Structures are given as structure tokens and as C-alpha cells.
Here is the input.
Amino acid sequence: RPPRATLFPYTTLFRSVIVVLVLLLFVVAFMLVRTVLAMRGGEELTETPAISVEAPVVAEHLATALRIETVSSLPPAPFPEREFKELHRLFERLYPHVHSVLTCEVVGQAGLLYTWPGKQPDLPALVLCGHQDVVPADPATLPQWKYPPFSGEIAEGYVWGRGALDDKSSVICILEAVEALLRAEYQPERTVYLAFGQDEETGGQSAKQIAALLAERGVALAAVLDEGGSIMQGIVPGVQQPTALLGYAEKGYLTLHLTVTADPGHSAAPPEQTAITILAAALLRLEKAPLPVRLDALRTLYADLGGAASFGWQFLMNNLWLFGGIVRRQVVRSPAAAALVRTTRAVTLFQGGIKDNLLPARAEAAVNFRLLPGDSIADICEWARAAIDDERVQIEAVSGGAWEASPVSDVTHPIYQQLANVTRQTYPEAVPAPFLVIGATDARSYAPLCPQTYRFTPLMLNAEDFKSVHGINERIEIETLGKMVEFYARLLRAWGELE
Here is the structure.
């Protein structure tokens, strides 16, 4: 038996090991408890009455609207006034109750603002948005269209044509829902506005005009819904079932114009760098300096997914203090996921030189940024100058083509909860989740008037459908049109009667 004095170091070491193990067990238990709590089920559904919808009839109405070529145009191209007037006449013919009960104003050249008076006009009002314009179809792609882009063909269970998804389907389905509710002699408690812009695809000036008109009239708003996220499967890591992406904010927009000037001359005696190589090096430095990753949008997304997300992903997301680095490395591998967690930049235009044996006197490029909430235009301009670090490169923000990220709407507010509830009623197979919209919508014009501004298009998209937006063979399922009308009718009841 060894002397007592020699046992003391071993006893101390043993106690230290025990303390460390106890602390580790406590930390692991804490992490597991956080994860289990995060995976609890959501609130119970509150049933909102549905309406009867004849989806084939809605499909015929949409098909007729798709045949009218309300294509966005920028000056000096002429404004397609005749086509927009034709679309407005179609609305009057298809929706007689809407046009006898609601007042309709033309705002600007062709923007539409419908007003549906509520029983309690003093209550803050609702706005449902959509846009009448569509992007053109590239003539070079026409042979690849299964049906011509403005044919409004109904075939194979779909309605085909430019605007089927973006965004005439929303406009038509909103009008269908209001028409059906009016036939049922329904009147909302609060006033409802339907705001349909004419130029969302070319900057959204029409929405700004409508928003300014509402502000001038002192209209108080309770909620705004515009296009935005949709229902998709396989887009959220660790989630198998379809996810309804309810947009609570959208990214900002900025284009920087980069210019390098140099002395022209003969290519036989070139300098060490030309204007083109100076600019190319600057762009490469931008590319090698990605903006920082912030996981706020992902944290918000997973907080509402609950048990729909795998235990592994919820374990990571609810313990970012430890696993933040792993999550960051994982999400930036996917361009779609990376767009949710950082301000992105993309070189979209490059021009330089006029002949192969002349040194270029000028080289130009455009870099497009989509700003994460929390990053300002001033921040990004300063970051770009620091990253390029070359006085020979002139950097200028494109005038009139920039806006800050939108305010962030509350995803715990009853208005949002009702939006999620109506989504689950209409699409029981989908799980709603808050989503940062990475594109631009007309909603940003209404956000300053209403803290509860959301962006969601109530349709289910697969990967092929998603590619057709602004692409080839844009189409929408006939069955989906019925679901969309059902969604808007339910939402009008839920939001219209919410205290």
C-alpha cells in the first residue's frame, strides 16, 4: 500500500476529470433540450371557410389574359397602352361583381387600384398586390417553346404562356376570389385594396405611385401581401416535405458601374497593363473578397420549421454558438442557400476595346449586388472601394437603380400567423416557414406604410417550373389555379375579420 501523500495527485486528477465530464454532460443535455423544444409541433389549425372553385374556368380566364401581350418596356420603347386597356376590359367582362361593388382607379398609365369598402372603415386596411406586366420572350428561344409564349394554350393539365407564373396568375386568382366572395354576399370587416402595378418587371414605379396615393389619403394599413416565396420541395436542407416560403423581407439592390480609362495606342507596343486587364484584376479582387456570412435568415427559417426539419439540422441550428462554422461552410456551397446568408455580387456586364490591334481607351463593367438586411448601400460602396484598392478604377452607383433592403416584418405577429394558418389549410402537405426573398417585388413600395408586409405566391413549384419563370415554357397547373383562388378567399376572410 503506497504512502497517503502519493495518492493525493491521483485523487485531484480524478476529481477534475469528473468535473469536466459533468460539465460536458450538462452542455450536451442543454443542447439536446434546446433542439427538442425547437422540434415541438406548431399551433393548431383555425379553420377558415373555403369556397367552391371551378379550376377549369379559372384556367380559361387566365389563358385569355396571357394572350394579351402586356410586356414591360423602358423608354425609348413605346408603352403598350392598347394591350393594357384590352386587359382592363377583360377584367371588367370577367368580374362583373368586382366592378359593380369595388371602385377601380387607373393610377399612372395603367396601374389599377381597387377599393372594397369594409363594414368598419376605421379599421386599418388590407392590400393584396400583383402586377399586370410580363417580361418578353427572347426571340432566339421561340423554337424551344412547346406552345407559343403568348398563345395562352391549355394543354396537358397546364395553362402555358408568359405570365402564367409571374404574375398574371396571382392577379387573376385574386380577382376570382373577390368575385366569388361577392357572389356569396360577403363583405370584410376592414377595407381591402387590390393594387395591380403595370411595370414591376422594369422597376416598379407604378407601385410607388399607388403607395404614394394611399399615403396621401392617410390610409392606415394592417397587412400587405405581394408575390414572393412559393411552395417548394427539397430546397431547405434537412426538410423532406414541401416548404411554404413566406417572405418577411426582401434584399436590397445595387449596381456599381466600374470604369478604367487609359491611353489608346498600337497593340504592338503594349504597356504592362491595359484598361481591360486593370479592370479584370479589380473584378477578380471583388470575387476573392466575399461579403461576410450572417445566419439570421436561416435561424428565422428553422425556428418555425419545428419537427419538419431533421433532428441533425435542428441540432446544428439551435446551437450555432458551437456549430456556426460548420453551418456557414455547408450553406455557402449552394448559390441559392448562400444568397440567404450574405450580400451577393455578380459581374453582369463587361465591355472594352473596339479592335483587336488597338489598345483600349476605356473598359467598363457592371457589378450587381443584392443586399442582406443590415447591409446598406453606403456599406457596400465602401467595401467595394476597399476590396478593389486601385485609384485607376472609378466606381459609381448606377443612378436610380438602387434601393436598401426592406424592413423586416414580424413573424410572430397575428397577421403572419394567420397567413401561415391559411397556407396550411390550403396546402396541408406543406410546412410554412419565414423566408428572406432574394429578388425584388413591388412590396418594397408598401413596406414603409405597413410593418406587416409579406411576400408569398400560393402555388407549388418543382425545379422545372421554377426554371420557366422568365425562361422557356412558363406554365401553371390547372389544379394549382383552383388552390390559389381558395387561398386568397380564405386569406381575405382571415385577415378581413382579424381584430
